[in-house]
Amino acid sequence: MNAQTQTNASSGSPGTAPPPPLVIDPAAPEALAAGLLAGQRRALARAITMIESSRGDHRHRAEELMRRALPHTGRAIRLGISGIPGVGKSTFIEAFGGHLIDRGLRVAVLAVDPSSPVTGGSILGDKTRMAELARRPEAFIRPSPSGGTLGGVARRTRESLLLCEAAGHDVIIVETVGVGQSETAVAEMVDMFLLLLAPGGGDELQGIKKGIVELADLIVVNKADGDLAPAAERARREYTNALHLLRPTSPSWSPAVLKCSSLGGTGIEEVWTKVEEFRGIKTDNGELAARRAAQARAWMWGEVRETLVAMLRDSDGMGDVVHGLEGRVSRGEISPTEAARTAIAAFVDRNRPA
User: Fold this and answer.
1) Minimal CA–CA distance to 58: which of 34, 29, 31?
2) Coil vs helix vs strand at 171
């Protein structure tokens, strides 16, 4: 074969354009999974956007993406952090996350912002409040709207957590909305639940009345600096005494009450030491694996309920049935319980094989 023939063979016959290069859709599950497992922040952000989408075609892609990511999950420490607005959650997470990165760890923060009941929108300002942490390449911060989901978390926070694990992050922090006692769903998706309190937040009885305290694996009194230092120490003692009156959720762990200053950086190392101690104990006695298994089962049944409700509403011909039943319930002609059973019976009947 001469040189001219070789040239023609490599570039195609004269007058024929070379084949176009293979273009891979960056949103395709296989492409996203490859970038995700390589630790690419852009791929992780795209993946979370896909799983948060309510579009049908995106849901199918999201399920395939999760299938590819799931074998690479389970190695990270999952922390839930809650506290009332103004307690300094974002400031604490920035200081805590920076401390972990300095220790050589990669940190992901899933921050849930409340959605407006009027417009449905959210401010999503956590990246702004954690500006220093957001600039560090070892950190990934993802604000998400709660979308009206109860419990202080977003509908797809669990999937987002697993995707962050698959992307190689060592510590996943879920920061909840911070709206009060209903904020307990985060405890059902993390390994350890940390509650932040402000100095002067109440006496022992107030601590006992807050149901969220009973779920906490660790309590941290924040803002223990300056003029608030004495109040922080007093709050630490009061909540320590209050915890003695509550039954621990596990025989292997008694929640401690620590204090720290997120601005000054004091007490942050002690918090991390407690987290490591908790994880070590729970891993060695098998409680961590059992807790995650129970969480996965509860997650499955939650998805079953939500999927069935969506199927019932979207099924052909069910719109009129549901609308009619809602009207009868509103007028007091039928009880909600009877209406629910009627709707389910109608759905089953319409989808019964011929």
Assistant:
1) 29
2) strand
